[in-house]
């Protein structure tokens, strides 16, 4: 087991917690992503392969590839994450993009900035109102962070750039089907997030499920919202590799695993990260967040190393919760460590330091720190480029620069 092969359909590692900042023009995609080969440069026993896996042959121990080829394995680790769940309405994805990749963020940014440009050109008040209305569906961390960031973009970064519209008049609406925002946080922090968003003029509507989404907006019960952009931030489900294993899956498309994160009945296959269904002591599944995935990745590495060395493997996987963070806006965030709960500037500072720390590479950390500092003092955002996401990756990368 000395040869290690990393297969990915993309050539970069993405720091997803900051992806919303690319979508709202606060950061460039190059500041939160790094080429996989660069990351693995010092690991001489790891080979990186840009390819797309399409299936697993469990009896033959083969990973099937899109070009018809296959890779034989002794041990297979599947860590492909999750996709957004449109709850049986796959057609909504066309009108309400989600946020899982660099291409998703660039497309959302394109639609967002184009809406302001189109509003500047129209003389129709009703059309202008629609163009300046943005709806986010889902009141979890992504929805809260996106809503706050769009509100700040409109109120500060774009304030003096237009002549015929007032960007600050943009109507940002956050729809949440449940009774509270940030359902995984303590009630006090959830209430703080609600107050903070409303101070930023975000229209938060709780207990408001979406019934329909089309090219012109959303419907919630008897109410219709005409909007230029709808962003889906509600719910996730396991990605397609879960179905390759031929084992029973949960209703959310995740894979129940053994205590060592191996597939039940196939100890040579591991599932880690968001795709793994692991229960906590209270019987609830672990949250699908980055901290869980990081710990599971390190744990699986220890299990494999113990097998290779013929030593006793570690005990069952146990998640150590370092806490939860969510930013709301400028100097406004919540931090829940269980034993300590923070709000406001102190929580924002903890959030900023944690996210800079977990970025890969000194260059990315430095660029994000400088970009945030520049934005803090100037209220400007430097990645306000309208780029067509349908173009090639090389073209998009060439167009992106830290400041414009």
Question: Describe it for me?
Answer:
It is a single chain. This protein is an alpha/beta fold. The longest helix has 20 residues, at 102-121. It has 11 helices and 24 strands. The model is unreliable at 392-404 (pLDDT under 50). Helix content is 32%, strand content 23%. Helix 3 (102-121) runs antiparallel to helix 4. The protein is globular. It has 2 domains: 4-82 and 236-309, 3-Layer(bba) Sandwich (FAD/NAD(P)-binding domain); 90-234 and 324-399, 3-Layer(bba) Sandwich (FAD/NAD(P)-binding domain). It has helices at 19-23, 36-39, 102-121, 125-131, 141-157, 187-199, 241-244, 290-309, 344-358, 362-378, 393-399, and strands spanning 4-8, 12-14, 33-35, 46-50, 53-57, 62-65, 70-72, 76-78, 82-84, 133-137, 171-175, 202-205, 212-214, 217-220, 223-226, 229-232, 236-238, 255-256, 262-263, 266-271, 276-277, 324-329, 332-336, 341-343. Strands 12-11-10-16 form a 4-stranded parallel β-sheet. Strands 5-6-7 form a 3-stranded antiparallel β-sheet, with no helix packed on it. It has a 3-stranded mixed β-sheet with strand order 8-20-19, with no helix packed on it.
């Amino acid at each position: 087991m000395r040869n290690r092969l990393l297969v990915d359909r993309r050539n970069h590692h993405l720091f997803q917690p900051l992806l919303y900042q690319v979508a709202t023009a606060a950061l460039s995609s190059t500041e939160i992503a790094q080429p996989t080969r660069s990351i693995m440069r010092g690991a001489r026993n790891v080979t990186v392969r840009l390819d797309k896996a399409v299936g697993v042959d469990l009896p033959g121990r083969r990973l099937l590839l899109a070009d018809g080829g296959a890779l034989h394995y002794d041990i297979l680790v599947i860590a492909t994450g999750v996709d957004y769940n449109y709850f049986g309405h796959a057609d909504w994805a066309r009108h309400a993009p989600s946020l899982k990749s660099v291409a998703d963020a660039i497309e959302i940014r394109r639609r967002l900035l184009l809406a302001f440009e189109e509003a500047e050109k129209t003389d129709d008040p009703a059309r202008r109102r629609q163009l300046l209305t943005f709806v986010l569906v889902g009141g979890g961390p992504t929805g809260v962070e996106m809503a706050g960031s769009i509100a700040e973009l409109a109120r500060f970064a774009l304030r003096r750039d237009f002549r015929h519209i007032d960007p600050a008049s943009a109507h940002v609406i956050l729809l949440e089907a449940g009774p509270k925002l940030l359902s995984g946080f303590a009630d006090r922090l959830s209430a703080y997030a609600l107050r903070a968003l409303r101070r930023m003029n975000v229209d938060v509507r709780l207990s408001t499920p979406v019934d329909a989404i089309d090219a012109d907006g959303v419907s919630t019960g008897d109410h219709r919202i005409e909007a230029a952009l709808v962003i889906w931030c509600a719910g996730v489900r396991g990605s397609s590799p879960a179905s390759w294993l031929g084992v029973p899956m949960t209703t959310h498309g995740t894979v129940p695993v053994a205590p060592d994160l191996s597939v039940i009945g196939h100890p040579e296959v591991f599932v880690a990260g968001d795709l793994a269904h692991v229960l906590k002591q209270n019987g609830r599944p672990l949250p699908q967040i980055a901290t869980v995935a990081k710990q599971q990745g390190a744990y699986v590495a220890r299990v494999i190393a113990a097998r290779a060395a013929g030593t006793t493997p570690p005990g069952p996987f146990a998640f150590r919760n370092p806490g939860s963070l969510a930013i709301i806006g400028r100097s406004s965030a919540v931090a829940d460590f269980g034993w300590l709960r923070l709000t406001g500037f102190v929580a924002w500072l903890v959030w900023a330091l944690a996210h800079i720390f977990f970025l890969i590479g000194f260059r990315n950390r430095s660029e994000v720190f400088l970009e945030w500092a520049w934005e803090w003092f100037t209220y400007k955002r430097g990645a306000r480029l309208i780029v067509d996401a349908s173009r090639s990756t090389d073209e998009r990368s060439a167009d992106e620069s830290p400041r414009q």
